[in-house]
Structures are given as structure tokens and as C-alpha cells.
Amino acid sequence: MQQPVLPVQHQTIFVQGPARLHLGFLDLNGGLGRHFGSIGLAVNSHHTKLSIADLDGLQQSDISVPESTKNKITKLINQFYLTLGKDIPEDLRRTKVNVHSLIPEHAGLGSGTQLALVIGQLLANYHQLDIPTPTIAQALDRGKRSGIGISTFDTGGFVVDAGLGPHSPTPVRLFQQAFPSQWRLVMLMDKNHQGIHGQTEIQAFQTLPEFPLQHSQRICHLTLMQLLPALIEQDIDLFGSAVSEIQTLIGQHFAPAQGGQYTSKPIAMLLEHAKSLGFNGMAQSSWGPTCCVFTNSQDQADQLIAELRSKMDLDPQLQNIELLSAAGVNQGASITIDSQTKHFNNIVRD
């Protein structure tokens, strides 16, 4: 452990981490000794941004923060000082942070991991400690299955990880590639629904049947020989086709726990309409309810949003769905100290 030094004096430190989409697991069967393995990317639709200042700085959050979230923040701060910051003297610890924005909870956007990593890096930088993001994730109990949020915090872009082996503290990143700048995602968010989380999520993983080996093999084949080459060659049709097939195999497995291929029935109706319009790259992120449709441009995304809104206007069941377009984020989380901003892919070390 590094020797802690005095906190940064008379400066305000901001750390901001992007939302992420989790598009599927590589291997839920685990027959080769590794489990999970994930596919996903960073998106600019939402972000978590917190700051910390010297005691004479302003201590006021920009947004209303639910009591449950305040409790999570307090717990994460305490966990940091019990682990990575255990050698920092009590009189040097500043445990009050300002909240400027938060990724929606239990929407499939990785809010829990980003909150933990933002707090961990915020405190590490405040105490001038150079701690790698995977180490922070492990100390704050993140990365138990997916490593997408950890990797996108460091590098942004489109990421594939190898999941967890017998001696893996966090998932191992296999692949990172910039997401095409012209591609857009039409995101569908259900304001009246939350994805499975907490104890219910743990029980689902424990009680679902064994994932068929041939399905894991098919997903790995699709990822290596279609999804990733299509991403690199910027072929939206092949990319979308691979995403949709992977999602079908994953969604069928989780259907008994989440009530169908998709968690939100109104979103499922809108995705079926998008499919009828000729779109084929559709995905639910994690347990949802957030879903997305991949498009090749902002114009195509705007066109799809207009078509979906026309359908929503005719059906009262669809009134609580929020539509927005998003782009990929091709850089890691940012740290700003006194107006000087850096991104983690420029400063982290493996």
C-alpha cells in the first residue's frame, strides 16, 4: 500500500463516469472453468458525477439525492477507508461528497459500479493515491460477474471481458475498440419499471437451469467471427444481426426470471414495431428494463424515434416509455481538478 499523503488542499476534485450497456454474456455454462464473460459499451446518455472539496469549500449537491442513495454513498466511503484507505489518519479523512448527477438505478445502465468507481477514484485522488480501477472495484465489491463497467470506466468504447476464472479478482478485459462515431443507439427506458436486482438477482442466478453448452459456443462464435469484425469494419447490418441472435439466446435463458425475452412488456411491443420497420440490432441491457436499437446515423435514429412516438401516441400502454438517442463514449471516465480535465484512458496504467 502506498504511503498516504496530505489531501489536495483548496481544490475541488470532480470525477465523472459514463453509463454502460451490458449486451450479453459469453459463457453462462462455465464448462471450461471461467464463468460469465461480458459484451458491452459506454454510452453518453447518462453519467455519474461527484466532487469533493477542502473543508472550506462549498458542500451542496446539485440534485435531489434519495436517502437510499445517500446511504450507499456513505457505505462506499466507509468501505474505502476500511480497505484501500485504512492507513490514512482519521484527521485527514474527508467523507462528504457533492452529487452532481447520477445514472438511474436498476435500469440496466451500471449505476452501482459507476457510483463505486467514481467514489473510489475521487477519494484516491483526494489523498493523492494512484490506485488502479480494478483494485478499487475489488475493494468496493464490484465486478462479481461483469467487468464491462470497470473497463468502460478506464477506456470507454466497446468492450469484451473473459469473466472470472478460479483466481480472477475481477473480470479480465480481452478486447476494447472505439465505437463508430456516426452510429447511434435509440434507447428505450421504462419509467414505471425496474430491472431485477439485489437478492432477487442472486436467487435468479442460483435457480435458473444450467445454460446449454451449445448456446455458449454459439455466442462465442458469433462474437469472435461476426460481432467484432462487423464493429471494426463498421458493418451495422452484420453487427445488429449478431447482437440480436446473442440477445435471443440470453433472453430465452433469463425469461423465467424476468417474465419474457424483455423485462418491460411495453418496450417489447415497441421493439417488435422497430423490427417490422426493418431494424435488426436490438438489445436489452443487463436485466433491463432499458433496451436499445442500433442505427447507422443520427438521421436514422431520429427517424426511428419519430416512428416509435407515432405508435406510442396511439396506445395508452406505451405512454411511460422514454425515448432518446445516444452515442458511444470512446474515452474513459474524467477527473477534473481546478478546471483541468483528464480522462482515465490517458492516465491509468494496467
TrEMBL record:
InterPro entries, A to Z: GHMP_kinase_C_dom, GHMP_kinase_N_dom, RFAP_synthase, Ribosomal_Su5_D2-typ_SF, Ribsml_uS5_D2-typ_fold_subgr
Keyword vocabulary terms for this entry: Kinase, Transferase
Keyword Kinase: yes
Pfam families in the record: GHMP_kinases_C, GHMP_kinases_N
Domain of life: Bacteria
Domain GHMP kinase C-terminal: 227-312
Keyword Transferase applies: yes
An example molecular function term from Gene Ontology annotations: kinase activity
Residues of the GHMP kinase N-terminal domain: 89-146
Protein name (Swiss-Prot/TrEMBL): Uncharacterized protein
Species per Swiss-Prot/TrEMBL record: Methylophaga muralis
